[in-house]
Amino acid sequence: MDTLMIKVDEGTMPVHTDKGKIILIDQRKLPDAIEYFDATDIDQMCFAISDMVVRGAPSIGVAAALSMAAHLQNLARNQSSPLTIGQFDEAKSKLDATRPTAVNLRWATSQVHNFACCLLSEKPDNIAFGERLFEFAEKMLQDHLERNRRLSDFGLSVVPQSARIVTHCNAGSLAACGWGTALGVIRSAHAKGLNPQVFVDETRPRNQGSKLTMWELTQDGVPATLICDNMSGYLMKRGDVDMVITGADRIAANGDSANKIGTYSLAVLAHHHGIPFYIAAPLSTFDPQIESGEAIPIEFRNQDEVLSLDGRSLTVSGAEALNPAFDVTPNELIKGIITEEGVLTPPYKESISAALKRNSEK
Length: 362
Ligand code: MRU
Prior knowledge:
Elements: E1 15-18, E2 21-25, E3 36-38, H1 42-50, H2 57-77, H3 85-96, H4 103-121, H5 126-155, E4 164-167, H6 173-176, H7 182-191, E5 197-201, H8 208-220, E6 224-227, H9 232-237, E7 243-246, E8 250-252, E9 257-260, H10 263-272, E10 277-280, E11 286-287, H11 304-307, E12 308-309, E13 312-313, E14 326-329, E15 336-339, E16 342-344, H12 348-360
Helix pairs in contact: 1-2, 2-3, 2-4, 2-5, 3-4, 4-5, 5-7
């Protein structure tokens, strides 16, 4: 596999197309090994998303869009009649069922579905249909890269010189399929010479912080210090933290934001200590249909992720564990939401709907 896939100007690309194939960096194996996973087949992609070969809300969205388009293109090649909306629905439902919280997934498959319906009405032959659909999904990836960059540039306005920043989970290139969201802001601050220093929550149970965020920041030469998830209160009390920035998996119309489990605790701690807490997310992470965080579905994952680490048991045999993968941070704890339409501030209902409107009018 071409090692260029690993590092491009926009960061590490976790999703890649190569001669009709969809190849993923296997994020389960990092940082120990760089391995690739062939997710060209839609069932393989569904497995890859559920098992977190590919993860992070925007990356899941990009991967699902490409997968749906590739699958429909393949169906189109192998049948003589035009594809049906039922076939679009089936592919979309299959992918949408893989992870319930990250709304980017549904957003991305809806974009492909809508485009497929428009194409169908133009009555192209099956080969042209497949090619145009796949091109559309590839363009979504390009658009996404550009939005990551814009978001990160807007984020610079909230990062002071030499900021000591806590981040949680991984909201970098691996998660965002591009420059990154929370890590994109940090990466831009580093590139501008603002000298950010990052405290990285290890992010149990899957350790996206210690495995993926540390890997990304180390590659970029950004000063990063790993902490356990229960250490940030101590650091905040000592005055060692200037701000918190995390990503999000779904943001309701009122600004309530779902992100990796533990984000809510971090936001409460930051609020208690008067430390600004920011979310960085592209507009595809907003779900204006959902009024508040109460209605955001929370994914519960297998308890084995809590009971063991890298295949080794962490507790007594027969122990039970809970594994909610996300929590919701209420809007009143969020100082600003950094998007490609600028840094949104309270009242969020108004600022979010205005940003979505500006974006839809472009
Ligand atoms: O379970 P994961 O690893 O997919 O969760 C990822 C996160 O919570 C990220 O913070 C979020 O998707 C934003 S990524 C830019």
